[in-house]
Amino acid sequence: MPRPLELKGVIHGKTIALEEATFLPDGCPVIVHLTLSREEALRQLMLPGPDMTAEEVADLEEVLSEIRGRPIKLPPPEVR
User: Fold this and answer.
1) In which domain, by residue range, is 27 found?
2) Fewer CB within 10 Å: C terminus or N terminus of the chain?
């Protein structure tokens, strides 16, 4: 099985800005498989979702505090 083309970039809404140009023409349909860095994956897991209510964020903080054994205060969803 051939190795897939690996490109790095940054997501901006529905657009991915690649670090390098490709040989593919503009408008070429592709299937994208994303891999997050370990740090980004952990950050995404720890932050509240933008649609979470204040009560849901407080509940999440409580659960995470119990797991970690120390108080955890999450940033507000609008920080994401």
Assistant:
1) 9-79
2) N
